[in-house]
Amino acid sequence: MGIACLLLTQSVRSQSGRNVKKSSDAKAKQGPAPSRSAAPIRSTVSEQDLGDEIIKIASRLVPIPASVTDEAGRPLTNLGLQDFELQIDGQVKPISELMRSESPVRMAVLFDNSASITATREFEKRAAIRFFQRVIRPIDQAALFSISTTAELVQPLTNDVEKLVRAIESFGKPVGATALLDGLAQAATYLRPQQGRRVIVIISDGADTISDTSFESALSQVIAADCQVYAVQTGGSDNPNLRDLVAERRLQELAEQTGGMVYVPSSTEDLDRAFAQIAADLAQQYVLSYYATDDPQDGRFRRISLLVKTHPGARVRTRRGYYSPKG
Asked: Whose C-alpha in 72, 98, 174, 220 is 20 to 30 A from the C-alpha of 323?
């Protein structure tokens, strides 16, 4: 996860020609069920030569994607850096940069191929194909995972839409159990080293029947990898006796913690609209950069609060927080 720590090393040459080295590492904190693996580091290194003193600084970046709408739900697309206020654990922090949708997307699509998905199968495939055709730009890349008894990467990251289309078209009849949480953890690990906005799109009813990965572990791995989760929950029902409430809550929690959304199409025609809304959300998104230079290295969860101070009625959807590294 691109998170926070400042590594400062000073190298001072003495008059006798011997080098004296001093280093100080930033300290370290922990939150909702941290992942056992350390957070990934996205760092920028600058070097200043101040006479006999050389200072090297490596900063770790927390990307904060944000979708902003007005009171009526219309996207606010003309905001600048000065319009936002960022708080980390209740403390106001500086935002170093603001970008729009020009930043590249690295996307992993988890396509449920288990036996629990049958009725809307072919339409889901067509809708997913149109989604790729609508969303993937030359600077973007997407990968495709097939989820059944196991989670399998069937198409690595590519910006070749035809490859993604052929991978979806190759899916056979849905069979087997559903290892959705295993697939989610696998996708987070796969996206973690990638630069750009990291997005996971789940096309599934949300049920899991066989994963070794717990929900808490999968969620912490997704947060640690700086991934946003969008879900298109298929196979739903208006009958509460036929609904999987656990699956619904899990998808909602994934989206709320990461700044994504859950779409529940009520008909096959709604599937296209759900994908179109995800595409629009990504296209209208702000991406703020926060360099967390003073976080203690304790692996704890840092809570994010993002406000639009110039528009009191604005609604902001963003990630709930991030994990600091454990030093």
From this structure: 98
Which distant-in-sequence residues (6+ apart) come within 8 Å of 177 by Cβ? 114, 115, 148, 149, 209, 210
Over residues 170-203, the pLDDT tens digits come to 998 888 899 999 999 999 999 999 999 999 999 9
- Residue closest to 255 by CA, chosen among 228, 278, 232, 218: 228
- pLDDT band of residue 118 (cuts 50, 70, 90) is low
CA–CA gap between residue 227 and residue 224 (Å, rounded) = 8
Higher-pLDDT residue of 172 and 238 is 172
Dihedral pair phi/psi, residue 272, rounded to 5°: -60, -45
192, 40 Cβ separation under 8 angstroms: yes
Measure Cα distances from 164 to 35, 42, 186, 248, 297 in Å: 30, 28, 19, 27, 40
Dist CA 148 CA 134 (whole Å): 26
